[in-house]
């Protein structure tokens, strides 16, 4: 029997919940990846080993509200770099910059503290999943408003059929994802 690749190993621990939050949606639930300590370690190591490379190493990791906080904080800790949260509007206590983006129904706004990054910082932007790409695009714009360079967007899951990963690449953001659910 062939050993599983990291991608295959992680894929088998992602739960698919049919018809949630709406009929016809196949929700990709990453919480089982976090519950098992061995699986969680494999997940985090997949990111850490990539970003330990000098050419890809960030100065700061930025995580998108909310599951990006879980991943981003641990990856930042392991890389010995700082972590900054990009939060939903109204959650940060200090002076912020904000970016509004479109959702399927309506819009949402995310914020970042004005002192979260410095001009010239190389930032890894991380979230659990890329669907339409709106949240990650808004995070990229926020970091760039403060003069940082987003070197890469990272996520566990890519749902390429929703167009987000292509939209982000078209906007000049290299992406690194671990599991692709195209056509599944």
TrEMBL record:
Biological process (GO), any one: adenine salvage
Gene Ontology, cellular component aspect: cytoplasm
Top-level taxon of origin: Bacteria
Compartment list: Cytoplasm
Gene3D superfamilies per UniProt: 3.40.50.2020
Domain called Phosphoribosyltransferase: residue spans: 33-158
PANTHER family in the cross-refs: ADENINE PHOSPHORIBOSYLTRANSFERASE
Protein name stated in the entry: Adenine phosphoribosyltransferase
UniProt organism field: Acidovorax delafieldii
